[in-house]
Amino acid sequence: MSSTRRAETFPANTPAASQIFTTVLSHGPLTRLEVARRAGLSPAAVTKAVRPLIEAGYLVEDADEPARPALGRPANPVRVDGGRALFIGVKVTGDEIIGVLTDLCCRIRVARHAPLPDRDPKGVLASVAELTGELLTAAGDLGVPVLGLGIAVSGDVDRGAGVVRYSPFLEWREVPLAELAAATTGLPVTVDNDVRALTVAEQWFGAGVGLSDFAVVTVGAGIGCGLVVHGRVVAGAQGVAGEIGHVTVDPAGPPCHCGNRGCVEAIAGDAAIVRRIRETTGVEVTDTAAAVELAHQGDTGAREAYARAGEAIGRGIATVANLLGPERVIISGEGLAAHDLFAEQIREAFTAAAFGSAAQCDLQTRPLPFEEWARGAAATAIQSFIRADQQQ
Amino acid sequence: MSSTRRAETFPANTPAASQIFTTVLSHGPLTRLEVARRAGLSPAAVTKAVRPLIEAGYLVEDADEPARPALGRPANPVRVDGGRALFIGVKVTGDEIIGVLTDLCCRIRVARHAPLPDRDPKGVLASVAELTGELLTAAGDLGVPVLGLGIAVSGDVDRGAGVVRYSPFLEWREVPLAELAAATTGLPVTVDNDVRALTVAEQWFGAGVGLSDFAVVTVGAGIGCGLVVHGRVVAGAQGVAGEIGHVTVDPAGPPCHCGNRGCVEAIAGDAAIVRRIRETTGVEVTDTAAAVELAHQGDTGAREAYARAGEAIGRGIATVANLLGPERVIISGEGLAAHDLFAEQIREAFTAAAFGSAAQCDLQTRPLPFEEWARGAAATAIQSFIRADQQQ
DNA sequence: ACTCTTAATTTCCGCCGTCAATAAAAGAAG
DNA sequence: CTTCTTTTATTGACGGCGGAAATTAAGAGT
Question: Where would one find the signal peptide in this protein (chains A, B) (predicted)?
């Protein structure tokens, strides 16, 4: 496993081919004509681009003909053969790593997690290698090649360079993770920020499909935000963007570890909610689960803490909507376990603080199973595989 | 003038040609090799694209050879011949219209303004036609054709459709201004939101040249913001974006006409500052000029009002920086007359509220002469002329 | 005069994507 | 059963864009 095996490459050199494939990938089975229409190309171009993709096994003609609605030659839709290739996505948190094996359509086949005994690059790399090894074995049993590995890390990540610039959780600076992981696993590696990875998954396989402007807001220990503008994920000039967690909601609010007061995260982050409940109720809740339970029991102080959190989140989302005018905001995150406790407040605060037509922005809530972060990492690997060099 | 004259079109059909021209336009005289490098094209492609542009008179070989630094065949830089074509930009405010005649390099040749007696579409159209007529006469004296008219209006504008969706100041809804103005002036017309127009001017001819991610913040009666992400001006899904003026800075702050409290505009807008000074000092200041003077005289209350305003603006800018990670923020606007009164607070509040590497964002201040808004409108006309159909 | 160096141009070529015509695959009509 | 209609897919010719490499251009130094 120490040698980099000859990586299989995707047979789509031209921008049109890669765009056509992406269209089919995101929009399920489509006839060639429909693909041409959506991609703004001629039918001839689609036919020509599709052939090599079918020959290589990445696309298949959909055998089952679901609807035979109309006159004329029957349509012959094509779809991506998810089983053609597998990808591995790994999310590294402060104390564990989560890995998934997905197919080309980013459907999870196997999910694993393991504790993270050691946070320094060497230790993390060993854990990643072990987990990847397990998943590779599982892939081998399926007889399908694994064509890429995506790693998601919170913090400041330069995806293009494959370098973790700064990760507070891991206490890393300038770690060339892609290079290191490629050397140990022999796979092509993509490294990206975790929220951006999740955003990529939504853009290609989730609620962001077909939208050129949307945002993903994650609610949990921290409050994160991934942005898609002009059809591309926003990375920011310094590699950091979407810091909604430290948008000030109330300058008189509780102090935040960032040094300010009343950041969204200082009100609606897990720790902030728990602290607030302790302070107002005197009950010694220690973690989020206990906080949620207390609120569900009807405790006024706990409910109020969640209401405040919801309001802060709603205001944060309204800020995003005011500034960018996205078509949709997808709210997700572990914090959604408490969804019923603040959904209403989020919506209310958003509506109140959204200015003008920004209020027309569609708010969607999506559950976030714990493997979802790792799935996002896999999505970045799929993306890198499909458009090896070219952008968007 | 009632018939639409045969519009001259720009001889650059291919994306490469238009990109090459834009590069030369923004980056002054460049040798063909340098253009090729910057545009990511081969020198051959540049030579081929440049020739018809020179023949049509849009580009010229720079006669004066400024530096002859090196060995080898002397470089033969090309630049845009600003005098080849003229454009008109018009900014419509609530009570006057401002018009400029610019050359192809967006340098102002003539500036005029006129009161706006009537705000309904018909009246505005008449005023625009009259002002345009004057500028066309001036252009005729120069013997240079006018190839486009840009109109900037505050509010919700659909540039592609040429329709003003909603303008609170003018009390317009769904006015097809581009079509109407084209019919009366006979010129190709571009209509855009005023802040976005200003942003286009900065992107092509100002402090945003060469940057793919930056923001323009305007300080004046209102607080506005134009955003460029991935090299393109953000328009938002509903045609509205950059509403920094109604980002909440302090939920306990003064009420805003939008229905919330403590919006940036409710603290740092002209009217808000004047009101604040009246309330805290008791002095009956009536307008911004008086407020500035009072502050410059050292009045504590007035100075404090400006300090608060600066803090609010700084926080607003930090929010933009946190969310988008722009490379630069350009602060401009009529409010900069009071620049010395709050520049420091803007910077301090920004630094305090910017999270992590967002603080590395470059803050620049630019004066905003009153014709600048109209110049922005002219910039949109130039942009439309250069890339008639294709995007970016 | 010759060489060295860098800029610009020319020529040729590959290749992508469109156009327009054609084939394919049904059901409908007679 | 044949022919027509309708819609999808394919084919082949064509045009044009942009790149690679060779060539020309225009000096400076020796």
Answer: none
- Domain identity same for A215 and A350: yes
Instruction: Using CB atoms, pick whichever of B232, B246, B324 lies closest to residue A322.
Output: B246
Query: Does one domain contain both A58 and A128?
Result: no
Residue B160 belongs to domain with CATH number = 3.30.420.40
Q: Is the CB of A390 under 7 A from strand C?
A: no
Residue closest to A264 by CA, chosen among A345, A327, A365, A198: A345
Of B372, B331, B334, give the one whose Cα is nearest residue B90: B372
When comparing pLDDT for A87 and B249, which is higher?
A87
Q: Could B322 and A353 be called an inter-chain contact, meaning their C-beta atoms sit closer than 8 Å? A: no
Specify the pLDDT at position B2.
39
Strand partners, B149: B88, B189
Which chain A residues in 190-249 lie under 8 Å from chain B, judged by CB atoms?
211-213, 225, 227, 229-230, 232, 234-249
Residue A311 lies in a domain: yes
Domain final position from B80, B107, B124: B80
Average per-residue pLDDT for chain A: 92
C-alpha distance from residue B275 to each of B249, B266, B270, B271, B333 (Å) = 18, 10, 9, 6, 20
Query: At a CB cut-off of 8 Å and minimum separation 6, what does A36 contact?
Result: A42, A43, A45, A46
Q: What percent of chain A has pLDDT over 70?
A: 96
pLDDT of residue A141: 94
Inspect the interface and report whether the beta carbons of B249 and A248 lie closer than 8 Å: yes
Asked if B223 and B343 sit in the same domain, the reply is yes
In whole angstroms, how far apart are CA B9 and each of B83, B137, B190, B381? Answer: 16, 21, 15, 13
**Are the C-beta atoms of A320 and B322 separated by less than 8 Å?**
no
Q: Tens digits of per-residue pLDDT, B293-325? A: 999 999 999 999 999 999 999 999 999 999 999
What are the tokens at A243?
């810091």
State the residue for tokens 């500035």: B292
CA–CA dist A264, B329 (Å, integer) = 23
Q: Please indicate, yes or no, whether residues A246 and A130 belong to a single structural domain of this protein.
A: no
B225 plus B326 within the same structural domain: yes
Residue B43: which pLDDT band, with cuts at 50, 70 and 90? very high
Nearest to residue B352, comparing CAs of A245, A221, A239, A248? A248
Q: Which tokens is A36 given?
A: 């041409």
**pLDDT higher than 70, residue A349:** yes
Does one domain contain both A229 and A335? Answer: yes
B364 touching A (Cβ < 8 Å): no
3-state secondary structure of A269: coil
Q: Could you count the other beta carbons within 10 Å of the beta carbon of residue A70? A: 8
CB neighbourhood size of A254 (10 A): 15
Q: Which domain holds residue B141?
A: 83-201+372-386
Q: Are residues B221 and B352 in the same domain?
A: yes
B 260-299 near A (Cβ less than 8 A): 260
The number of distinct structural domains making up chain B is: 3
Q: Is B357 on the interface with A (CB under 8 A)?
A: yes
pLDDT tens-digit readout, B71-98: 888 889 999 999 999 999 999 998 999 9
